[in-house]
Specification:
By secondary structure, this protein is α+β, with helices and mostly antiparallel strands. The protein has a single domain, classed as Gcn5-related N-acetyltransferase (GNAT) (Aminopeptidase), CATH 3.40.630.30. The protein is 31% helix and 22% strand. Strands 1-2-3-4-5 form a five-stranded mixed sheet, sandwiched between helices. The longest helix is centred in the middle third of the chain and has 16 residues. The termini are far apart.
Length: 143
């Protein structure tokens, strides 16, 4: 891992670079409006929204959630040209550290069933598939 990789909290000026990471990592889908997702996160625990930098460039992100029961990971992404260098693992280690400080006992996350590389990554860092079905109900449109 390069020593110049730094993790810090998101700031508003990071918005375009973060959305670029998400788009280029395949995290943005038609049902997601990334700008709205950022606005929502900034209203709830913005300190749990991290970016990873190489020098001054944002190359990775993770959005962490905690509601007092379970931790959640969203938008873990690394620019394709910087993948497989340990940055996602480093962000996840920081996410776990922050969630442990909150008293969190378990982290949940969702991965699209077609994303084999993400499933393999999470397996390698100790995540296991839960025997649950994920349900969702959209309360407001993102478009």
């Amino acid at each position: 891992m390069e020593t110049s990789f730094l993790i810090r909290p998101f700031s508003l000026g990071d918005t375009d670079a973060v959305i670029n990471v998400w788009r280029r990592s395949g995290l943005v889908h038609p049902n997601n409006n990334p700008a709205k997702d950022i606005q929502r996160k900034l209203r709830v625990r913005p300190d749990l929204f991290l970016v990873g930098l190489l020098g001054a460039d944002i190359v990775a992100t993770v959005m962490i959630g905690y509601e007092g029961h379970r931790g959640w990971i969203n938008y873990l992404g690394v620019l394709p040209e910087h993948q497989r260098r340990g940055y996602a693992r480093w962000l996840m280690e920081e996410a776990e550290r922050l969630l442990r400080l909150e008293g969190c006992s378990k982290i949940n996350l969702q991965v699209r069933s077609t994303n084999a590389s993400a499933l393999s990554f999470y397996d390698r860092i100790g995540f296991a598939r839960d025997e649950v079905i994920s349900l969702g109900k959209r309360l407001e449109p993102d478009s």
